[in-house]
Write a structure and sequence with these properties.
31% of the residues lie in helices and 19% in strands. It is α/β, with parallel strands linked by helices. Strands 22, 23, 24, 25, 26, 29, 30 and 31 form an eight-stranded mixed beta sheet that branches. Strands 2-1-3-4-5-6 form a six-stranded mixed beta sheet. The chain is globular, with a radius of gyration of 32 Å.
């Protein structure tokens, strides 16, 4: 049964359009025709989840399957979450608006160590038991959906979260999820029990069912039955760009653009980088597929920006050619390209060419470390000369703001290396100074290194005390340095990431208790102290404080400086693994000599996951790190023998560099104005919940999709000449909105109407279209008044409710038994209703609202039992129509002002139940 979402999305709910499920690209499949019903449940707010590329791709793939239905759900913001709980309404999927418990399977994206608390929040809001154990013993076990997780963190180490999921999907999901869907359909047909169904799923490579595995005393994980594999394989799939074209949200999202993947996987071999290890081998997408997906996607979505996605875009050798081809094809569309963080050593004029344009975005590089020695230890593969050349190229090509990422706390790091970050920035400033131009600004992010599973540094132990000390060193060094803004990651967040990310199943109790104490992911950004307190309290209550103290103080260090044996020795480059050990020795645990296995041979909570990376290779690469030896990128040089390439995971697929097409020129905004078209339209149904700025963005995209010849403004940031007469308040419906469109060529009015209507949402109907003289004032300039129809109801005596406003009371009196008709008449006959108005600048002035009221009439009124039940009088509801000032200079009469006047004459609380703007009235002089 569908949840009555429209009753939940009242005025106090912020950004209600994110819960509507009616975006362009949303798929509404018949419920009864589906054999398997999925929900992709993203444990973040809509603005984050709806723009996540993996979320969009899997949603499109599942809905492309026969008899498979895929809906979506997102973490509700705090206001809606509170309302769901207060009204005892379960969390719902946005398209079908059905409770999550009505589906067969819920899939959560787990891409961050601390994100599991949001998953528990969503399960709780949905009324679903939090653990697989509780679901198995629940009386409604047969009706409970299967709960699974995928994503980077789930693939890396799912053990801290194993109790919460029926299964984990490891690796790429494009092929894995449809296979799961087939098994689910077969299981439903055969009426399999939950356990039998999970046993069938466990036979699929890439599916890990935690309840079929037990944790040993040392934290390692082993099967508890013979029917499941000893190790579970990570799945690998080939990117398919066509599935990237999908949702176009009405609200502005975090990544408000079309995103297409050009390369999956990275073989650079940075020793700190988990994604680079977990996504091997590297797979380049065929350039023609990329170009076609972008060209078709921009037309289908109406976006004005696109992004090419990869862990290292510049390692896609065809990037300059592909970027230039797309730029040439879309040169008349005012389209811009953005790229994520790039390899500074590959940034050159060819890449700068495809990024330039009318809206030059920012640049982000990640040197990671401040000295050459540290960059070699982490196998960054970047020299000082390459760093300088890349930054100089950016400055020469017009960029004056560059973002740089660095890390502190890396294995083998000394204070000299830490201070090297500041020295590197100082050196870049000095070398890249250009006379006669605004100074170069660096925005730095200094993050704290946290070791990750499946990397050569997975055995390293960090110290949060050292993080704090090194941050202090840098703050002193950067003090007074001009042209630099520095952001530091909070040490407490890093500590929790490390503690949870490399934990075992004992941490499930910690995660659950932290959620109970209010430690949702958003809490880290809104109240870090509160979130940290919740996590530490949860750790204390779970009896794991001793383990967390190891994170605070550092349990061990893979790198230890040798004692100085010679005053001429270069102590900055001498390291070993344990005190007293010679350079190159493998590390021993604190309890060495007690019979325990050496540190690198101890079992790890994630050893049962087969990611393709050979654990012995990680040990060998760690040894190379001790020697500050680098390993080449196996996509372009010799194989490093990491263990990935083979039958199960495939091989590197590298597309060679292509000839770069001749540049066809930058976008030149066509500012010609040959025709102005005025459109009268409505905003009805759920489109009333789309805000004004979102509506402007919607019209921009609609015009692009309709391929209408819109004129642009000039300047550095050309915008389409689309002007709405007046902003409609959120939640208000209308049948009388007006918009002006200025075109670069004359077009038949009926043709314009047909093209525009074909791309507009159904609940934005067009009523009238006219051609207007270009020299005539705009609708906004002509606007004089607006007509509204409002529904109001009585809510009781103002005196009883303590809401009588004596200061603003009108000098009128009405008999206690007066009715709506008398109140309306009194307002019409009264000369003044004074109210204090506060301007945007904060100044106050007295305003006579009556001067702004042109007409007021009672349309109908009737007793209303629902309002009487709340203490209202027998007068019930009334429908009023009024016309009032609505001018661009701020002279407005709002529906709230009519309520104010009614309260003054009735001395009753008046509730505003519904508002519709029936027309905007233009004054043509």
């Amino acid at each position: 049964m569908a949840v009555k979402v429209e009753e939940l999305l009242t005025a106090e709910i912020n950004q209600p359009a994110r819960y509507l499920g009616n975006e362009l690209g949303a798929t509404h499949k018949p419920w009864d025709a589906a054999s398997v019903r999925w929900v992709l449940t993203y444990p973040e707010v809509y603005e984050v989840g709806a723009s996540n590329l993996g979320h969009i791709i899997l949603y499109n793939i599942l809905n492309a399957g026969p008899r498979q239905l895929c809906d979506r759900a997102y973490l509700p913001a705090a206001d809606l979450a509170a309302k769901l709980r207060s009204t005892k309404t379960p969390l719902f999927a946005v398209e079908s608006r059905r409770s999550l418990t009505e589906f067969d399977i819920l899939g959560f994206s787990l891409s961050y160590e601390l994100g599991a608390t949001n998953i528990l929040e969503m399960l709780d809001l949905a009324g679903i038991p939090l653990t697989w154990q509780e679901r198995a013993t629940n009386p409604q076990n047969g009706q409970m959906p299967l709960i699974f997780a995928g994503g980077q963190t789930a693939t890396s180490n799912p053990e801290p979260y194993a109790d919460f999921f029926d299964f984990i999907a490891l690796g790429d999901g494009e092929e894995l999820l449809p296979e799961i869907g087939l098994i689910l359909a077969e299981g439903k047909t055969n009426n399999l029990s939950r356990e039998a169904l999970l046993l069938d799923l466990a036979q699929i490579p890439g599916v890990y069912v935690p309840q079929f595995y037990d944790m040993a005393a040392d934290g390692s994980v082993h099967p508890n039955r013979p029917q499941v594999p000893q190790r579970i394989l990570r799945r690998v799939a080939t990117p398919i760009p066509a599935y990237s074209i999908g949702l176009v949200p009405y609200v502005q999202t975090v990544h408000d653009r079309l995103t297409v993947e050009i390369r999956r996987g990275c073989t650079r071999g940075c020793r700190f980088c988990q994604p680079g290890m977990l996504t091997r081998p590297a797979r380049d997408v065929e350039p023609q597929q990329v170009v076609e997906a972008i060209e078709q996607g921009m037309q289908a979505t109406g976006h004005s920006e696109f992004s090419l996605l990869s862990l290292s875009c510049s390692d896609y050798l065809a990037l300059p050619a592909v970027g230039m081809e797309i730029k040439n094809r879309l040169k008349d569309k005012n389209i811009s390209l953005s790229l994520p963080s790039q390899r500074v050593d590959r940034f050159d004029d060819n890449i700068a060419d495809i990024l330039g344009g009318t809206r030059q975005g920012g640049l982000t590089f990640a040197p990671e470390a401040g000295t050459q020695r540290m960059r070699d230890i982490v196998n960054k593969g970047l020299t000082n000369e390459e760093l300088l050349r890349g930054v100089k190229t950016a400055v020469d090509r017009g960029w004056d703001k560059i973002k740089l990422y660095f890390m502190i706390g890396l294995p083998g790091e000394t204070d000299f290396d830490v201070l090297g970050i500041a020295e590197t920035v100082r050196w870049l400033h000095r070398e890249c100074r250009i006379n006669g131009r605004r100074g170069l600004t660096f925005n730095l992010t200094i993050s704290n290194f946290t070791p990750k599973p499946h990397t050569p540094f997975q055995w390293h132990s960090v110290s949060t005390a050292e993080f704090s000390r090194k941050q202090k060193l840098l703050k002193e060094e950067f003090r007074g340095m001009r042209g630099v803004k520095v952001n530091y990651t909070d040490v407490r967040i890093s500590a929790m990431e490390d503690f949870v990310g490399r934990g075992d199943r004992r941490l499930a109790a910690v995660v659950r208790r932290a959620w109970e104490l209010g430690a949702g992911m958003d809490a880290w950004w809104e109240s870090l102290d509160q979130a940290y307190k919740a996590w530490t309290q949860a750790i204390d209550e779970s009896g794991l404080t001793w383990k967390y103290r190891q994170v605070e103080s550092g349990e061990w260090n893979l790198f230890e400086k040798e004692e100085e044996h010679d005053t001429d020795a270069d102590t900055d480059t001498r390291m070993n693994l344990t005190a007293g050990a010679g350079t190159g020795a493998l590390p021993q645990p604190a309890g060495a000599g007690t019979g325990a296995p050496p540190l690198l041979d101890q079992p790890l909570p994630w050893d049962h996951l087969d990611t393709g990376i050979d654990k012995n290779w990680l040990k060998i690469d760690l040894q190379k790190a001790l020697e500050a030896a680098t390993v080449p990128d196996c996509s372009f040089e010799g194989c490093s023998r990491c263990g990935v390439c083979g039958t199960d995971f495939g091989h590197n697929v590298v597309v060679d560099a292509l000839p770069i097409p001749e540049f066809a020129g930058e976008f030149v905004p066509n500012t010609e104005r040959k025709q102005r078209v005025r459109v009268w339209f409505g905003k009805v149904g759920d489109m009333a919940l789309v805000g004004h700025l979102d509506l402007i963005r919607l019209f921009d995209r609609v015009v692009r999709r309709a391929d209408l010849p819109i004129s642009f403004t000039g300047g550095f940031h050309p915008n389409p000449r689309i002007s709405l007469a007046n902003a409609l308040p959120l939640g208000v419906t209308s049948t009388g909105e007006i918009a002006d469109f200025e075109l670069t060529e004359s077009i038949d009015i009926e043709s314009f109407r047909e093209k525009l209507a074909a791309k507009l949402p159904e609940n934005i109907p067009i009523y009238k279209v006219e051609s207007i003289d270009l020299k005539a004032p705009s609708a906004n300039q002509l606007l004089e008044a607006a007509e509204y129809v409002i529904t109001v109801a009585l809510g009781g005596s103002l005196t009883e409710n303590g809401e009588l406003d004596h200061e603003n009371s009108a000098p009128v009196s009405v008999a206690p038994d007066a009715n709506w008709e008398a109140w309306v008449k009194t307002i019409v006959e009264t000369e003044a209703f004074w109210r204090v108005h506060t301007t945007k600048s904060g100044k106050t002035k007295d305003v006579n609202l009556r001067d702004r009221l042109h007409k007021l009439e009672l349309v109908e009124h009737k007793p209303d039992s629902s309002t009487s039940a709340r203490g209202a009088t027998s007068e019930g509801r009334a429908v009023l129509r009024f016309t009032g000032s609505c001018r661009s200079d701020g002279n407005l009469l709002k529906p709230e002002h009519i309520v104010f006047m009614l309260e003054q004459v009735s001395q009753q609380e008046i509730q505003l139940l519904q508002v519709e703007r029936s027309q905007l009235i233009l004054g043509y002089g």
